[in-house]
Automatic annotation (TrEMBL):
InterPro entries: Ribosomal_bS20, Ribosomal_bS20_sf. One of its GO terms (molecular function) is small ribosomal subunit rRNA binding. The lineage of its organism: Bacteria, Pseudomonadati, Pseudomonadota, Betaproteobacteria, Rhodocyclales. GO terms for cellular component: cytosol; small ribosomal subunit. Keywords: Ribonucleoprotein, Ribosomal protein, RNA-binding, rRNA-binding. The gene is rpsT. This is Small ribosomal subunit protein bS20. It comes from Azospira restricta. Pfam families: Ribosomal_S20p. PANTHER family: 30S RIBOSOMAL PROTEIN S20, SMALL RIBOSOMAL SUBUNIT PROTEIN BS20C. Belongs to the bacterial ribosomal protein bS20 family.
Amino acid sequence: MANSAQARKRARQADKQRAHNASLRSTLRTAIKRVQKAIGAGDKAAAQTVYQESVAVLDRIADKKIIHKNKASRHKSRLSAQIKALAA
C-alpha cells in the first residue's frame, strides 16, 4: 500500500481512471458486437446504419487513447469489408 499522501492520492486516481477506461472499453465492445449481430442477420441497410454509429464510438475511444488508432482502423476496415460482402 502507498505510504505517502501523494502516493495514496495517485492510487485513488489510478483506480478511478481504470474504472472509467474499463467502461469505455465495454462501450467499444458492445458497439462492435452490435454491428456483427446486424451482419449476422443479413440486413445490409441496418448493418450500415449501426456501422456508422460504431465508427463514431471507435474514433472517440481511439482519440482518448483507450485503444490505439490503428486498432480502431483495423476494426472499421474488417467490419466494413463484412458489410460489403453481404451484397455479394
